[in-house]
Amino acid sequence: MNPLTVTIDGPAGVGKSTVARSLAARLGIPYLNSGALYRAVAWKVSKRGIKPNDEAAVIDLCKQTEFVLVGPDNDQSVVIDGTRLTHELWTPHVSLVASEVSRLPSVRAFLRPIQRQCGNNQGVVAEGRDMGTHVFVDAEVKVFLDASPTVRARRRFRELQSRDAAVSWERTASELTERDNRDTTRYAAPLRPSPDATMIDTSDLSASQVVDAILALIRQEQARPQVEPTPPVDTTKRTQSSY
Question: What are phi and psi of 212, to 5 degrees?
């Protein structure tokens, strides 16, 4: 099979990470959790006491930092300057700061090449919020997952509980609404479906059902006849004969 790039975008709580990890395992190709990188930036910004909306200070910090994605794991982690971060990336505070730094155009531009390096010639299943619209615009298969707000909040709440995060249902639902607003209204790479993405509502679907649906899309793409590019027309003789 030729290297395959699959992008899975969507808001929080739609099951992107679970689906992307499972799909990557089924395909035998690397998995990219793009959010882990923004969380890593947020973690270091918080540690240094930098305001997340101070774009000059944040991008300067990024340029001084070595980011290495480690995985695939149950939860993809990031190594920053030799320190591997795991559960530190998924606290409610880091989530909020990550939402702020992800709004900064220079930060998104800085992290884009790092994201694109994942997989390289092996292909990749990349999940995030702008994978199909900005990072992997030439992906063979693009999917945008969505679900009802109630279902998304419930999934997010259970996810945070599994990470031992001390959060309440009310706080989870409120932060999800705030995150949606920031992600969809930000100037740099706002959250939206790519025009050529397939929309899948996961409200009433299990993760395995969503994976099966995406695998069906991949089979359709691979069965599509490959159209050879039309060679340019040689107009040399025509041009000469016209004089």
Answer: -60, -40
Q: Are 229 and 173 in contact (CB under 8 A)?
A: no
| Domain ranges, residue 76 | 5-222
The DSSP-derived string for 56-93 is HHHHHHHHT--EEEE-SSSS-EEEETTEEESGGGGSHH
| Whole-prediction pTM | 0.84
Whether 241 has a pLDDT exceeding 80, the answer reads no
Burial of 63 (0-12, 13-18, 19+ CB in 10 A): exposed
In a domain? residue 137? yes
How far are the Cα atoms of 123, 132, 160, 205 from residue 139, in angstroms, in the given order? 10, 7, 31, 24
In a domain, 107, yes or no: yes
Count up the domains in the chain and report the number. Answer: 1
